[in-house]
Design a protein that fits this description.
Hypothetical protein af1432; globular; seven-stranded mixed sheet; 10% strand; 13 strands
Length: 435
């Protein structure tokens, strides 16, 4: 394993002072997989105060000192160096009740989540792999360190992390580990919503339909509104898939943009509460886009999603039914949503229409035409908002309008321009108002 110069220098400094030091965790795993590690964490036999002494000439970050972590500020960023440690129980399912510093790296690796993350490397000592992580990587196997139930009870977020590792590296989950992931999934109720959202945001851009179907019960444990969708028969000749399987294919069908992936995951969340059948037994979902938007709003607020992501995803869900099929209708949509959100909406609608699983030929694909219209509107520098009008509030005041009447008049002018009933020309607009 070839370490960056800065990391090598930190390890050498500790070893020259008489301490064992290793690169540990994800960086070792990634290197063994032939990937370039995103960052490097170090572990050492040096106590925190001893690490501080070794790097006394460097700026230090000591926020994690009581848990054994000293941050060394280098030209390449902060390198976190943590003393080998053993941990007590996790009564809050996140932080250990106690931490005890220990001299051996093997014992330190025993507290980690999965074998593929429980490896350490030292240029002078070689690979420390007491739990067979290297072999598990070769076998493409995700396996918990020790007792999986205990590992997940220590921190239930490890269940979602396990899903992400399995998806990212295309690993099979060892049976006992998979069983514990399912049996302990309810413990994720105790997690801070921000942690759950952050982990889901790392996962969603990676998944395909098969991944989502495979781990549907675990996703439903953190987003309970998904659970009724699993296996739900839509009773429609236009849908061969159950509701969740359809949703999984829509998620795969959109680009990996995070907001768009969230919108795809939740786009049909309103179908179950809106489900009705007619006299023939055919299913209908009247109003599900609006209901789904409201449900998505609640879900994303609960998960503490950023406002911009939440608002855009909810707009996409509320608008996802029935693409605008004319340039005029698309112009109105862009006026309301903006170019980027409108493009995302078309991507969502395209994936939605293409994920029915019936195998039947779809009607003529209108989406190339719609994307073409969108590009034309971009090039035309079209009048799409009140600010784009060739007149403004001052012009309307000169005609004697005041207060709310000015805003109403500007909106009326914009509607006329969007409908191509008026050109966006100053005199034409003013003449319309005079009349």
């Amino acid at each position: 394993m070839l370490l960056p110069e800065t990391i090598q220098q930190c390890i050498t400094a500790l070893e020259q002072a008489g301490y064992a030091a290793y690169a540990v965790g994800g960086c070792v795993r990634d290197d063994l997989l032939g990937l370039t590690p995103g960052d490097y964490d170090l572990c050492t036999s040096a106590l925190p105060q001893e690490t501080e002494a070794v790097f006394c000439r460097c700026p230090l970050v000591l926020a994690g000192e009581k848990h054994g972590t000293v941050g060394v500020v280098t030209d390449c960023g902060v390198v976190e160096i943590t003393t080998f440690r053993k941990e007590g129980g996790y009564r809050d399912s996140r932080h250990p009740d106690w931490v005890r510093f220990i001299p051996r790296v093997e014992n330190d690796l025993g507290r980690r989540d999965f074998t593929i993350n429980a490896m350490a490397f030292s240029p002078s000592r070689g690979l420390a792999d007491p739990f067979g992580g290297q072999e598990d990587l070769k076998r493409r196997l995700l396996r918990a360190v020790g007792d999986p139930v205990q590992r997940f009870r220590e921190d239930p977020l490890r269940i979602l992390r396990g899903v992400r590792f399995a998806v990212r590296f295309q690993l099979d989950v060892e049976p006992e580990t998979e069983k514990a992931m399912a049996s302990e999934a309810h413990l994720m109720d105790s997690l801070a919503r921000e942690r759950v959202f952050e982990e889901l945001c790392k996962l969603l851009p990676l998944v395909n339909a098969k991944d989502l179907i495979r781990f549907a019960p675990i996703l439903a444990a953190v987003i309970p509104e998904l659970e009724p969708m699993i296996g739900f028969d839509q009773r429609s000749p236009h849908h061969a898939y159950d509701l969740f399987t359809h949703t999984a294919h829509v998620v795969e069908g959109v680009p990996g943009d995070l907001t768009l992936r969230w919108a795809a995951l939740l786009h049909d969340i309103g179908k179950v509460p809106c489900f009705t059948t007619d006299e023939t037994g055919r299913g209908h979902f009247y109003g599900h886009a609006q209901v789904g938007g409201d449900m998505a709003e609640e879900i994303l607020r609960r998960l503490k999603a950023p406002n911009a992501l939440r608002e855009t995803a909810v707009n996409l869900i509320r608008c996802h039914m029935g693409p605008s099929t004319t340039k005029k209708a698309l112009r109105r949509l862009v006026s309301r949503l903006g170019f980027d959100t409108t493009e995302d909406l078309l991507r969502l609608q395209e994936a939605d229409m293409g994920s029915k699983g019936t195998g039947e030929a779809e009607p003529e694909n209108i989406f190339p035409m719609l994307f073409g219209f969108l590009e034309e509107l971009r090039r035309e520098d079209a009048c799409l908002t009140v600010k784009d009008l060739a007149v403004d509030g001052n012009d309307l005041q000169a005609l004697g309008l005041q207060g709310k009447a000015i805003g109403d008049a500007l909106q009326s002018l914009l509607d006329q321009v969007l409908d191509e009933a008026l050109p966006n020309e100053r005199e034409a607009l003013l003449d319309f108002l005079r009349r």
